[in-house]
Amino acid sequence: MSGKVRFTAGARQLAIGRMELTIDEDGSLQLLRQLPEGDTVRYGRLDQAVRQRLLTALRAAPGGPADLPVADEAARRLTVGDTGWADGTEHPVPPVARLLEALAVQLLRPLDGGQLPLAVVESEPVAATAEAVRPAAAIGTVDGRPAFALAEGGLGFDLGRLPDGGSLGGSDGEAGLLPSAVALGTVEGRELFAVGAADGAVQVWDASDGALVHGTAGGEGAQVVAAGLVQGVPLVFSGGRRGEVRAWRAEDGKGLGLLETGGEGARALLHAHCAGADLVVASAPDGTVRVWDAGAGARLHLLVGHSEPVTALAVLPLGDQALLATGGQDCDIRLWDLATGREVALLTGHSATVTGLAFTELDGRPVLASCALDNTLRTWDVHAGTALGGRPAGGSWLTALVTVTVDGREQLASGDEHGRIRLWETKGGKPVGSYEPQRADGAGPVPVNALAAGQLDGRPVLLAGYGDGRVRLWDAASCSELYALESDGGPVGSVALLPAEDEPVLVCGTVAGAVRCHRLRDGAPLSVPTPHSGPVTALLFGEPVPGAATVLVSGGADGTVRIRNGQDGAPLRQLTAHQDGVTALAIGEVSGRRVLASAGRDRTVRLWDVDGGQAGPVLTGLRGSAEKLAIGSLEGRAVVLAGCADGSVLGWDVVGGHSIADLPGGTAEVRSLVCQDLDGEVLVAAGDADDTLRLWHLASGTLVNEAPLDRTPLAIAFGEAGLYVVGPGGALTL
DSSP string covering 105-121, please? Predict the structure, then answer.
């Protein structure tokens, strides 16, 4: 059986809507999702192990012609070449199609718990363009006077005075920053201007003199991590799909600089102490591998040989030398002399992506062990560069491999697609133990995406990162779970153990692009800052309350909300808020506590305690996603208002979470929203994409006024001179 694979499923079968998945014989794929609001296309490359499993199962399920007639056009269809299956016919779509459904969900909703290992598909990142970035505006003060900030996609950003619109400075489209969100605020008496960018960066300037105050660099987050002691300092290294490799101080998250990759990012990352040097190794998507001396910050080698991305790394110290093993999507394993950067061996035998490498010892000789998506575990003689043996691993895709010492014997520990961790004898490959999580929630198994081994209080432990976003610590000797950390940032892509003298630290990188650091002993969270892994979609300053400073809050297309100290940018917390991206933010004070409201493409509004991070009520009932939020007060109670994509404005009681308003309006998307108490009467103003401004009396829900404008109102505010409106081209006063 051969040919192109095409699979279609309707909205009834998949929560992601109607979709069409096409897989070419070379593994390249295209996924088209069709929704009323528009189509979404994703591209990528699938490991041949997936295609092989699919075709093997389909050979046992004979089909009919590719154009099988069906009564229901929404029925699932699957074709391979000129053979087809369709629900509702004598050749229904076989159960193996669930593999394709899981693949579609993982591509379109990457923050969901992944049912498939991350290694099975390489998706192409969706780059933001100036045309795709919507204009944004904010109103505040500069030099004590009303002012506005305006970002117009590829045109840069501007600061202007109100009400006359006079310029206070800005940037042009050649500044290298693609602004996607703006905010104005006052911190410790200093007026600040913040810009969020399409690459995830957030930069903060002094609004009066233009001096840069603090900021994060852009990039593609931190899907892969490494950790180690560098000149006695515990450091964390992180890399994403794009950008450079970053170094962070583990104890406080302070950034210490970049290791340059030419913006290529990293697919795999490793720290090792060899021959008195601290080495960091990173692989790029083009198959090249870079090696740095982390202590000196100098690159030692650029290793060229692999034709596809490298997905697994391992280092073997050899006295004053070291050997590096690399394996990747080209199915090859290469050995490199790190003293010279010369390739010393090419090991072939795997037939799918190499997902794990680990050096061990057999009969006094160094041995390399490897695993791959071809379901095999193999061993190699390091000195001879030859295969020693291999064995199948029970028909499962193997996803990770480490060595761990149990009762004085070094063993191999592998992870697989079903969430199992298995221990193997190095000699002979005999299985000696296995364990997997007990899932009380009734959900099916999720893959182990990453493994790391270490010690805690003298006992061997294994750290595992899973497709559902959980991180688990296992006692390797008793095969028992010590604790599990809940998901925060989507499936885990990489884990590392930092053997600090005082307190070991576990580190993981997630699909959402966040570095998570926790104390190994009890899982208590530690903080390491990372940028958003996609465009910043909402940005605001939160006023201080007693005992807490002004905060800078950003929401992103990656679904997360980041809260930082507004004065110095120090990270305070990260919230995984909305699966399909954050669309709007608002902040207000309720009974002396700061409350944050966030909205997303999932058509919900969520409430959070800003200073404690606790989640509050989830507000539902929206007819479209909320594009703007505002928090105000009505008759002594706090309320949150949402301006939606369908033109509606809805309101809820913050404390109780029940609905309090449904304000009639137009049908165009709400682009600006404000709630204001004027002489005891609470008014709500909203501007929409049809360039219309509406004003309501909140208590009665009465529409007070409706006025056409000459521009789309991106920000509105009540001022001494009237109602300020900011849109493309500048400001006006009503």
Answer: HHHH-TTSPPSS-GGGE
With beta carbons less than 8 A apart as the criterion, state whether 729 and 151 touch: no
Number of neighbours of residue 143 by Cβ within 10 angstroms: 10
Give the 3-state secondary structure of residue 136: strand
| Alpha carbon distance 375, 440 (integer Å) | 28
Local structure of residue 181 (DSSP, 8 states): E
Q: Per DSSP, which regions of 319-466 are E strands?
A: 321-328, 333-337, 342-347, 354-362, 365-372, 376-381, 386-392, 398-406, 409-416, 421-425, 431-435, 448-456, 459-466
Name the residue with tokens 């070379």: 26
326-353 pLDDT tens trace: 999 999 999 999 999 999 999 999 999 9
* Cis peptide preceding 94, ω within 30 of 0: no
Q: What is the pTM of this model?
A: 0.79
Task: Band the pLDDT of 123: cuts 50, 70, 90.
Answer: confident
Q: Residues with Cβ < 8 Å from 513, sequence gap 6 or more?
A: 200, 219, 220, 221, 222, 223, 240, 489, 530, 531, 532, 533, 534, 558
List, for residues 471-490, the tens digit of each pLDDT value.
999 999 988 999 999 887 77
- What tokens appear for 551 in the block? 């905060």
Largest separation between any pair of C-alpha atoms in the chain: 86
Residue 220 and residue 229 in contact, taking contact as beta carbons nearer than 8 Å = no
pLDDT score at 443: 67
Cα-Cα-Cα-Cα dihedral of 290, 384, 396, 94, to 10°? 90
Length of the chain as a residue count: 734
Separation of alpha carbons 428 and 362, rounded Å: 10
DSSP state of 483: E
Task: Determine the Cα–Cα distance for residues 133 and 129; give it in Å rounded to an integer.
Answer: 6
Q: Which helix (H) or strand (E) holds 57?
A: helix 48-59
Contacts of 52 by beta carbon, 8 Å cutoff, 6+ apart: none
Contact 627, 134 (CB under 8 A): no
Beta pairing partners, 31: 21, 42
Residues β-bridged to residue 71: none
Q: Do 588 and 638 meet the contact criterion of CB atoms below 8 Å apart?
A: yes
6 C-beta neighbours (distance < 10 Å), count? 18
State which H helix or E strand residue 312 sits in. strand 310-318
Which DSSP symbol is given to 132? T
Chain-centre distance of CA 366, in angstroms? 38
**DSSP assignment string, 200-258:** S-EEEEETTT--EEEEE--SS--SEEEEEEETTEEEEEEE-SSB-EEEEETTT--EEEE
**φ/ψ (deg, to 5) at 101:** -65, -45
- Tokens representing 234? 């515990």
Strands (DSSP E) along 534-581, which ranges? 536-542, 551-556, 560-565, 571-576
Q: Pairing state of beta strands 670-678 and 659-663?
A: unpaired
CA distance 659 to 677: 20
> In what order do the strands lie in the sheet containing 224-230?
224-230, 233-239, 245-249, 255-259
Average pLDDT over residues 578-598: 91
Structural tokens at position 352: 């799918």
Dist. CA 49–CA 66, nearest whole Å: 24
Q: What are the structure tokens assigned to 74, written together?
A: 């929404």
